[in-house]
Amino acid sequence: MKPRAAKFGIGDIVKHRKYPFRGVIFDIDPVFANTEEWWLSIPEEVRPSKDQPFYHLYAENSDTEYTAYVSEQNLEPDESGAPFRNPQIDETFTRSDSGHYVRRRNVLN
Length: 109
Hints:
Elements: E1 13-16, E2 22-29, H1 36-40, E3 54-60, E4 65-71, E5 75-77, H2 87-92, E6 93-95, E7 101-103
Antiparallel strand pairs: 1-2, 1-5, 2-3, 3-4, 6-7
């Protein structure tokens, strides 16, 4: 598989195109890098191709905070400006005046 350039970057705020959650990107895989079991657990009719960037998110929905692994085709920019409550975001990032998240200097990875 030839990797494609990622549309989003570390610290970008995104939301899922189909499901009601949003998050901050903390890592990017140029192509699928999760388990085959995870990939096969997605219904075939909505299963994303593996030859696209996949993003690790500090995510949240109306009920909970968690990490998510999402294909690029299922993400779009989130411009709501709504605050996040996921504590992992503040542990890893600071928020700039422009609203973008910037990795803290003391965080490795």
